[in-house]
Amino acid sequence: MMLSLMKYLVPSFMLILASFSPANAGDAYVETLLNICTTAQNTGDLGTIKSIANQVKNEQIPGDELLARSYNECLKAAFGETENAQDISVLLNRISDAKNQIIADCDKLLVAAPKVAIAHPTCKEILIK
Q1: pTM above 0.70, yes or no
Q2: In this structure, are 27 and 75 located in the same domain?
Q3: How far, in whole angstroms, is CA 30 from its chain's centroid?
Q4: 110: enclosing H helix or E strand
Q5: 3 FRET partner, CA 20 to 30 A, in 20, 47, 54, 83?
């Protein structure tokens, strides 16, 4: 009886443990790594910075602006400036500014030429919302 019970408990236990692996932990895992990298940067521990950066570089850039900044700073501290590095906050601000400008332009077009504004695909989508 005990052997048959173990036959089912062991695979179940292994599945539960697998669900806690770093690959499945997602944002919490990346956030923890970035916190370690930030601490290592503050203490000047280059070995830890490089070790953490090697783990973080294969992860997706976090959606949170502060975490994205920490992500970029960790990689920069470990590997130096990269050619294609973009400051996430600058990109997000540019996108927001462009969106606001398009909304303002569509509103002006609606006043100046309502039929044209409603027929324009971008303005139509904005004006209907």
Answers
A1: no
A2: yes
A3: 10
A4: helix 88-112
A5: 20
Q: Using the 8-state DSSP alphabet, how is residue 39 labeled?
A: H
Burial of 69 (0-12, 13-18, 19+ CB in 10 A): middle
Asked if residue 97 and residue 66 are part of one domain, the reply reads no
C-alpha–C-alpha distance, residues 109 and 53, integer Å: 48
96-99 long-range Cβ contacts below 8 angstroms, 24+ apart: none
Residue 46 structural domain = 1-82
Q: How far apart are CA 76 and CA 113, in angstroms?
A: 49
Q: Would you mind telling me the total number of residues written for the chain in this entry? A: 129
Which helix (H) or strand (E) segment holds residue 82: the answer is none
Element (H, E) at 5: helix 2-18
List, for residues 70-105, the tens digit of each pLDDT value.
998 999 999 987 555 556 767 788 889 999 999 999
Number of Cβ within a 10 Å radius of residue 119: 10
